[in-house]
Design a protein that fits this description.
Strand content: over 45%
Number of strands: 4
Structural class: mainly beta
Shape: globular
Radius of gyration: 12 Å
Strand order of the largest sheet: 2-1-3-4
Helix content: under 10%
Largest sheet: 4 strands, antiparallel
Amino acid sequence: MVLVYNAIGQKVAELLDEQMEQGYHKIDFYALNPSSDFYFYRLETPNYFQTMKMILQR
């Protein structure tokens, strides 16, 4: 699962909600509504999770 949150912790997008095979994958984020700001994206698996920061510039 890949989720995107705004700077105050509100979920703004769910990019992926399916199980995938191990390996390299690319997911595109088409930000139609979000404004330029800091966002966090969270990668979740049954055994692992990681949250990372990104900057959206328009």
